[in-house]
Amino acid sequence: MAVRWLCSLFGKPFDGGKRMDHGGPQDQQQHPMEHQQPYHPQHPAMMRLYEVQKEVSSLGPQVCTFSGLQNDREYKRMERELTQLLLQVDQVDTEGKLELQGARKRAAQEVEGLLRYLEENASHPSRLAIEELSIAARQLVDERVVAPQRAGGVAEINDELVDALQELVLRLTQIKTEGRVPLRKARYRALTRLCAVQDVLEGRTPQQTLSLPLSGDTHEAVHCINHVMVKVSMARSQLLALLMGLSGRDSCAHLSRILTELQVELDALDVSGNAAIRNYRKQVVEEINGLLKHLDLEGEGDDTRRYDLAQNNSIREIEAVRAHVSHLREGVLRYCLMGDLSFRPKAELQSLLTHLDQVDTAKNPCIREARRRAVVEVQAVITFLDLREALASRHPGPDEHPSHRAVWLVLGSLSDLQAQVLGFDGKRADKSYIILEEMLTKQLLTLDAVDPQGDESTKAARKQAVKFAQNILNYLDMKTDEWEY
């Protein structure tokens, strides 16, 4: 964007004669006398605009990939420099020449566009939501892990902490970025750090029960390994603080040097002839390697392929499966509409589930969520086929319990509603969505009103029907939540 504006200052062609759009229709209209004006490439005003163009070309890529907030130092720097450029453009003396006035106007629009883009992304509701969740994660890790360890205490690493962090990860994956590069980048950076914290904590949890360090009397190298292990424990706390932005002095590079030095110190030890000591050293080395792999996050997110998951091979696999499921779903619904149950691609659907299970998520929560949603889509078609088959093969006897019969009547209605949900392709604001939601809720109320009268089979059937109805509602909700990678 920013690197092109000068090419169109005079309506000149760009890239094979394609015209750039720099404003509304009025901006693109050429003055009737403008084509008669001479082109002055050496005019002082034009030379000044050339200089501005060079600066804009430098700032443009920075603005377009900036993923921070308005109070960040980088934001203030770019805002200040763009504002100065805007003032410089405004001060260009065009001497009343229409050609130069048009060039100045388009230059001002380009700088204003960058300023607007910078502000919109830094103050976007999704960006603020990302920051809010990042702050919540930071406070959680600080209160439970970092602060207690700094005070000489023990970190509170338990299932409650792990579950709370996982909930924050899930909420981050559900934030919509509208395809904006800065928002995708911000979400990706927040997720990678939080997932790294999860990985560090999960790797540390079992070590709290190990009978280490070993006694120094066992081998002369044990004392050195014990000393290194204490430093590794401190480094782990520093790493968590770095990942969550709780350390103002340390840096990833500094911590990496410390851990590498510890590795060198361990490698220099002579532990030959003692398998127990070798295993002890190996365990500590593996602990260090586990920490080192998280220390490349300072540049994480700079590569577009990292946060633009549309380019990710795993996502492409998942999307291919979803396209296949969509084709099978359409076929199933088409045959069912004709009352024909001969089309039952359950084996093919099961093979798709197996394929999804083998997709490599690389511990990326967004890819995991994409895979989970694809699995739900496959399972929805399978359960629809199962219920249709059960309804078709059902032959109730005269002694069937009335309550049991009532449950099956509801299941028949649910099957018809599920067919509509499977074929639904609208939004939550659509009238058809509201009707579907209301009808499914009514079926749940009907099931709630069924009195089993002590019949155990009716109790089990009603429980299964309630779960089935809730799954349909959840699937309808998933189809319309506008989730994105």
Structural class: mainly alpha
Largest sheet: none
Overall geometric form: flat
Radius of gyration, taken over Cα atoms and rounded to an integer in Å: 31 Å
Order of helices and strands: HHHHHHHHHHHHHHHHH
Q: Helicity range of the residues?
A: 55-70%
Measure the end-to-end span.
Answer: 25 Å
Query: What is the number of helices?
Result: 17
Q: What average pLDDT do the residues reach?
A: 81
Proportion of β residues? under 5%
Low-confidence stretches: 1-38, 205-211
* Number of E strands: 0
Short description:
With about 475 residues, the chain is mainly α.
List the helices and strands and how they pair.
Elements: H1 25-28, H2 44-65, H3 73-90, H4 98-122, H5 125-150, H6 159-173, H7 181-204, H8 222-243, H9 252-267, H10 275-292, H11 304-307, H12 313-337, H13 346-357, H14 365-392, H15 402-423, H16 431-449, H17 456-479
Can you offer a commentary on this structure?
The protein has about 475 residues and is an all-alpha fold. The protein is built from 17 helices and no strands. It is flat and about 95 Å long. Mean pLDDT is about 80; it is low at about 1-40 and about 205-210.
